[in-house]
Design goal:
551 residues, mainly beta, 10-stranded parallel β-sheet
Length: 551
């Protein structure tokens, strides 16, 4: 008996032959007795994951920007060779490596070096096992005491645009002794009716403080700056201004003078906050909801500290200075007028001078251009000495530099610049010091075309003494806008970079090394060491991860 399946196959075959014959296809080849052709499509094999494909290596011209100054050029090839001469550098970084300023993983992006050994400083610098300012996505070193913006966000921090914590309870109280009662933030309409009830009182600092003053954290009190507010009088009154944790100081926006806080030589600013209660210097616009935006800047002049440590650039009739900063043989020790104000001097012979302490401090929405090359920054240091303590400080949305350092010997640690319109860290005039755990995160748009994460210079004086000499360890530089480069180094300055991350946008190089004097091997900035000139040789780079050109 023929099975049902077999009978079905015979019937199907007969029907197919009849159909083909009816179409005139009698000569179609038969597949052969008892067989039906079957085509099997095999699935494509699953490829083995290989990870992102590394792009082609950058050319020297993509990695470094060559600038000719006074007829002297350091080529892109020569700049790349400087980096390749160091240890553990990666000049071809790419891919998703950072989430804001945090590494996306816990592994270091490059093999770390010991900053204490490489830079010869075990007293100030810490040894680390990672490159960049942060060890990984859960590093809390910048948590809480910073503020967040589109430039960079930090763990457990609030928005920079948020109204600082002022508290309530003192709107009806009087101001502490020595301060000027500026009334409350109550608002009335043209008919005199109250439209906004008072929530805090303004207590204004005097224009010149001639005796010690302490600003306590009083709920419902905002300390106000109006005009050029000065601590002490150079050569006459040495005064200390003490600011307690959580205090809010706001520049007055009701008048047109350039508001700033300036600490003269010999005086001190002791602004010591905590991670939970940072001290906030800001503009009055920041005291109301939606009073500032992510693009706000230039609302007041910032903080200026002036000291008696050496500087290399001297005013007429002073200096010239010597390598030890004593101005030996000069009729008058070297000193100079600070940018942005008239007749306020910095500089001297005391390398250990102290202008006070800034810890856990935010400085928001600063920067005023008085004239071209004459600007106020977020924080300005003029001739401040090694006795000045500055750590855990944020400069946010300055219309010029985040911080500019003119001479002196002050070291910085845990310093973050977000949203600066010009440079993040600008050092010149013979500054000699160390920085560790520093961040410069440029804003996404609108910054000046000549802005850098750091600009290192000697103010056109290639061999002025003391020579600019700096050491950066554990730094994260992010150029989110198409600036020329992240690191500009010129003017014969001596510098070393250890354990860093440098990331630039498409169209931007990573480094820009410039000399404006000398020829061949004797071009300043890259010439060999020369003790007679206080020159330790070309810049050095070790354990730096470079991710250039938006890769």
């Amino acid at each position: 008996m023929v099975s049902f399946s077999r009978r079905s196959q015979i019937l199907l075959a007969s029907s197919a032959a009849f159909f083909l014959a009816s179409c005139g296809a009698d000569d179609v080849a038969s597949p052969g007795a008892g067989s039906v052709p079957v085509t099997i499509n095999q699935p494509a094999p699953t490829p083995t994951p290989t990870g992102p494909v590394a792009p082609a290596a950058l050319t020297a011209a993509q990695f470094a920007l060559a600038t000719t100054q006074s007829g002297v050029t350091i080529t892109a090839d020569e700049q790349l060779a400087l980096i390749n001469a160091g240890q553990n550098n990666n000049v071809n970084g790419f891919g998703t490596t950072l989430n804001s300023v945090y590494p996306v993983g816990g592994a270091s992006l490059a093999t770390a070096s010991n900053p204490q050994t490489v830079l010869g400083n075990s007293a100030f610098l810490q040894n680390t096992s990672f490159v960049g300012a942060l060890s990984g996505p859960n590093d809390n070193a910048f948590s809480g005491w910073t503020c967040n913006s589109s430039s960079a966000s930090f763990l457990n921090s609030s928005a920079c645009t948020a109204v600082p914590s002022i508290g309530t309870g003192a709107a009806a109280a009087s101001c502490p002794t020595g301060l000027i009662d500026d009334g409350t933030n109550e608002i009335r309409n043209s008919s005199g009716a109250v439209t906004t009830a008072a929530t805090f009182r303004y207590c204004r600092l005097p224009l010149v403080m001639t005796s010690d003053l302490t600003l306590a954290k009083v709920p419902g009190t905002v300390y106000r700056l109006r005009g050029q507010t000065e601590v002490g009088v150079d050569g006459r009154n040495d005064v200390t201004l003490t600011i307690q944790p959580g205090v809010v100081l706001a520049a007055d926006s009701t008048e047109t003078s350039n508001d700033m806080l300036l600490v003269n030589r010999g005086s001190k600013l002791n602004a010591v906050g905590t991670a939970e209660a940072p001290i906030i210097f800001t503009a009055q616009q920041n005291l109301v909801n939606n009073g500032v935006s992510d693009s706000s800047q230039g609302l007041w002049g910032g903080v200026i500290l002036l000291g008696r440590a050496p500087t290399a650039v001297c005013a007429t009739g002073t200096g010239p200075n010597t390598a030890d900063g004593t101005s030996a043989g000069a009729a008058n020790p070297c000193q100079q007028q600070i940018e942005g104000v008239t007749g306020r001097l910095y500089g001297g012979t005391n390398q250990a001078d102290s202008s006070g302490t800034l810890q856990y401090v935010q400085i928001r929405y600063t920067g005023i251009a008085i004239s071209e090359g004459n600007e106020l920054q977020g924080l300005t240091l003029g001739g401040t000495g090694s006795g000045t303590t500055i750590d855990h400080v944020q400069s946010h949305n300055s219309a010029d530099d985040g911080i500019e350092i003119f001479g002196g010997t002050t070291n910085l640690k845990y310093f973050v610049v977000t949203g600066a319109d010009d440079d993040g860290f600008d050092v010149d005039n013979g500054w000699r010091g160390f920085m560790q755990f520093i961040i410069a995160a440029q804003k996404a748009g609108g910054s000046t075309a000549d802005s850098f994460a750091t600009e290192i210079d000697s103010n056109g004086g290639e061999d002025l003494l003391p020579r600019t000499y700096g050491r950066y360890a554990n730094f994260t530089f992010i150029q989110t806008n198409s600036a020329p480069a992240a690191i500009r180094l010129r003017g014969g300055a001596d510098f070393a970079f250890v354990n860093g991350i440098v990331k630039t946008a498409a169209g931007a190089a990573c480094v820009n090394v410039i000399a404006s004097a000398g020829a061949g091997a004797q071009r300043t900035t890259i010439r060999p060491a020369d003790a007679a000139l206080q020159d330790v040789g070309p810049p050095t780079f070790n354990s730096v991860y470079f991710q250039c050109q938006g890769r």
